[in-house]
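Appendix B. Chain record.
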Amino acid sequence: MYVNGVEVVTGNLSSVNTSTTGANLTIGERVSGGSIPFMGEIDEVRIWNIALDTLQIRANMNQTLCNYPTGLAAYFPLNEGVANGTNTSVTTTEDKISSSFATLSGFALTGTTSNWVPGAPVTGGNTFDTLTVTDCISYLSPSGKYNYTTSGTYSDTIPNSVGCDSILSINLTLVNNPTFANLTIDTCASYTVPSGKRTLTISGSYLDTIPNAQGCDSIIAINLTVTIISKAVNTSGNNRLTAAEAGGKYQWLNCTNGYTILQNDTNRFLDLLLVDHLPFKSSKMDVLTQQPA
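C-alpha cells predicted for this chain:
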C-alpha cells in the first residue's frame, strides 16, 4: 500500500470480503457489510488489472491521464461538475476506458459538502475555460451530451488539441422570450413571407419565423387573401372591348403611346370609335383592372 507515492505497508490477503456475484462497482462505499460510506474527497479513480511498481505509481499519481496505459481497466477523472456549485443536473460521471457512465447516488449536489469539489491539484494535458452564453429556450453543450433548459452554471468536457480533457465552465442565461405577431395581407398575385423562405400564391393561414431583437424567435401568423385578376379583354364585332374581370375598377391605356392613360375611359367596356374621339384598333388597346381593396 502506497500513500503519496511512498510504500507504507506490505502484506498478504488470505481472503477478501467482497461480493463475487456480479455486484456493481461502488466508489466511496463498501460493497458488502452494509452502508459504510467513505468520509472524504475522491478524485482520479483508476482501476488496474496489473500490479504497478513504485516508479509507475509516482510517475502518474499527480497527473491526469490522456493517453491510457496498458493495464488501465477503468478510469474516472471525476471532472464533470462545477466545484461547490449547483450541480443538480450533473448526476453521472464517465469511465474513460469503457465510455460508460456511473450514476451519482445520495449526493446533494449543491454547496460545499456532498457535491463536486475542487479536488487535489493535478498536472497534465487538461485545459480549463469559461464560457458565457446567452441563448433563447435551450442550449446544447459543446460535447452534445447535455441540453440545458434553465439558466445556471454548468460544466462540460470535450477533447482538447492534445487529446486530453478541455473542461468548460458554462455560465448560461436563457432568455426564453419569443415574440408573436399577426399580419393580414391582401394581394393580387403572390406574397413573399418576411423570412423570404416561401412565396405564397393561395389564400390561407400561414406561420413564419424570423429573429427578434433579442435573437430569439419572432413567430408571425399570416392571414393571406390572394385575389387573382384576369387581364383578358374580349372583343366583339361592334368595335367594343370588354374587360373579362367583372366588379373591378377600370382604366384603359393607349399601348402605342407609352401606355398613356385614356382619361375618360374608366368603364368595363371601351367603344373603339369613341376613345377620346380618336379611332383605335382593338390590337392597340390595353386595360388595367384592379379589385376593390
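Further analysis of this model is presented in Appendix C.
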